[in-house]
Design a protein that fits this description.
alpha/beta, Rossmann fold, about 325 residues, 7-stranded parallel beta sheet
Length: about 325
Amino acid sequence: MAYGLYTVFGGSGFLGRHVVQRLAAQGHRVRVAVRKPYLAAFLKPLGHIGQIQLVYADVRDPQSVAKAVEGSTAVINLVGVLSEAGHQKFDAIHVEGAANVARAAAQAGCLGLAHVSAIGADPESQAGYARTKGLGEARVREAFPKATIVRPSVMFGPEDGFLNRFAGLIKMLPIVPVICGKTRFQPVYVGDVAEAIVASLHDPVRYAGKTFELGGPSVLTMREVMAYVREEIMCKKELVNIPDALAKVQASLLGLLPNAPLTTDQFMMLQKDNVTAPGAQGLEAFGITPTPMEAIAPSYLVRYRPKGRFSQPIDTAQPR
């Protein structure tokens, strides 16, 4: 796709900043559409003066969405919530919000639309997150049939809420509880996902109307992920498996807290593996070689070590 104006909804988030950076580096103009533009000012230095524009938009508000996509060559929707809070409901964001963006992109005559969903998206799922992600995909297809849908597995990177969260918990707690320890993940580097999203819009004929599942090169259980983090931050604390029945009760109680570390809906999601489906097209379809977690994670997990970069290796050999 030729150089143009790309509107990125949710461009100030974890994945968004990587998408914006890649678009800017390729010379495109980038319009970042977010609910609080003043909190996205850190994105401006990623491009040249005037190259990155910050505008207000709320995907729940069709009028603000339509205004944000005016004159856009292509649109990228990254907006999603992992848990519900206040007016930020799954249906409002993942279903109606996704439909609003897709309709606006179609009405504005945009040449391409990339919509980010998630592995496990299923309109029939009992988990609200997965169900609404699946329903949102259908609404996007209805409004913009040539949209490219991207379903990443859990993403890792310097600002992630995945490995960083585990590292923080391991440092804080006397023993480390492991919930759904046998659930499998296929962690994917956020930079690879961003690269795939941008690539999908550069060749809309090749990628239009298709769905891609993006995973990393390794599949790990929850317990293996936590054991890896524990060793990387040089900690000997014991990992303790929590029975599902107890974990479910904990999730129902923790879900009542602000910024809950675990909700009942998330517990339901953890009952299923988060890996790419057999035969699904993935990063290789974009010519991208998946980046191993071991190649990136140590560079930012090092700050959790007892003495940071000056920590000496310790013997962490113990049963996993």
